[in-house]
Amino acid sequence: MQLLLKNTPVLKVNDDGTCEVLDLERLPFALRKANVTLAEFMEWAINRTLSIGRSYAKEILNTLRLSQNNRYAVFKACRGLSLEDSYWVKQEGDTQNWEDVNLFDNPLALFVTEVSLSGRNHHFKVQVDMRQTIHTPELTTLGASAKGWIRHEDGLYLHKVGKYELPACEILDALGIEHIPYMASTDDEINAYLSIERKEWIQGVEELIVNSKLFTSEDTALVTFEEFATFCSIYGLNPYEEAKKINRETYLKMQIADYILNNNDRHEQNWGFLMDNQTGKLIDFCPLFDHDHAFADYDQVLSQTTEENMTLYEAAKMAQSELELDLSILWKMECPKYLEHEQWEKVLERVEKIQI
């Protein structure tokens, strides 16, 4: 078996369980070292696949007749293909190339999108030997909420439940903090994939389906902080200090953004960097994304992006003392749509606490 970056082999996994590094500079960051073990490769592979805790994960796996307990088997069944990057695996005897299998260009299996958004799977039947001919990113899309990829005329969009993405975008726009834009999904975009029951549930809990355009490509990959931290541990580096070296201002702005939004979900897979696939080098921070758990209704949220144990407030206060961003524009804004008045008042209180 070979691990490839597009059509370039970067690692070979031999039948005896040994691994041969073929292109060190373009290996995945979590594997970027001279000697890679089978256990390390398998851990990297498993971390690419959806968790059983994701909404409708069981339905997705059942539809494709894949194991709910063996994530490595899921990885092999879908060739490890993801929309986060251009890595994939080729088994002995596989004659396909990147152009044949990649998710960026090839039509996606829309019935899997339907399962991933609505949980509706009872009328689909998939033969085991057909699985690798089905192009779907749903087996390697991480996160807990129900979501699904839909191809529009101008590219791929991730649709998911998460109304708080919209006020978060409005606030980040006003502050000039770079982020992935989200929009409310239209009925025409989602009617084909949502069951009536699912739509009624979403309306009943006063939620919303939103979408964002894919920000990676065949040439630019996402490297999560989780992967980056693994790389740093290999070489005895401090990942937080190294992150600041890549772009200190962006790192500090993230602290301020997460406090103002009271975001309690900035875990190690929810921030990171962009990598140039041609060189294997990091370009910059990835724009901020995934704010559907923002506006938490409690104070003293702990930071997940600092080396020291501190609250979001403490991290933001430290960042603002250095950057001195003008946050006063938020005081001039109306309460964003989908936020309760009390939530907006809390946002403004947080601004006042750190405004210089």
Task: Describe, in plain words, how this protein is organized in 3D.
The protein is built from 13 helices and 11 strands. Helix 1 packs across helix 3 and helix 11 packs across helix 12. The chain is of the alpha+beta class. Strand 10 and strand 11 form a beta hairpin. About 35% of the residues lie in helices and about 15% in strands. It has 2 domains: about 170 residues, no CATH class; about 140 residues, Phosphatidylinositol 3-kinase Catalytic Subunit, Chain A, Domain 5, CATH 1.10.1070.20.
| Total of DSSP H or I helical runs spanning 4+ residues | 13
Listing every helix as H and every strand as E from the N terminus to the C terminus, the arrangement reads EEEHHHEHHEEHEHHEEHHHEEHH
Largest beta sheet: what is the strand line-up? Answer: 3-2-1-4
Poorly predicted regions are none
In total, the number of domains comes to 2
Percent helix range: 25-40%
For the termini, the CA-CA separation is 56 Å
Question: Overall 3D geometry?
Answer: globular
Largest sheet: 4 strands, antiparallel
Count of extended strands:
11
Can you describe this structure in just a few lines?
By secondary structure, this protein is α+β, with helices and mostly antiparallel strands.
List keywords for this structure.
11 strands; alpha+beta; 356 residues; globular; Phosphatidylinositol 3-kinase Catalytic Subunit, Chain A, Domain 5; 13 helices; 15% strand
